[in-house]
Write a structure and sequence with these properties.
This protein is 42% helix and 0% strand. The mean pLDDT is 77. The protein is mainly α and 60 residues long. It contains two helices and no strands.
Amino acid sequence: MALLRAMIKTLITALLVLLALASPSHAATFSMKRGLNLDLWVTWPGEGQWGDASSIPCLA
């Protein structure tokens, strides 16, 4: 009887550990949604033109 009780306690402990490890996996998901258009960074002038005010249209 004591052996059975020890096995059950070990099984319950193992299940609790597995549940604790499986829970944070839901926080690691990622989904794309609307947001900042990153094309802005493609059209940004190169580092060599940063000192030239005419290379940035809003400053010219």
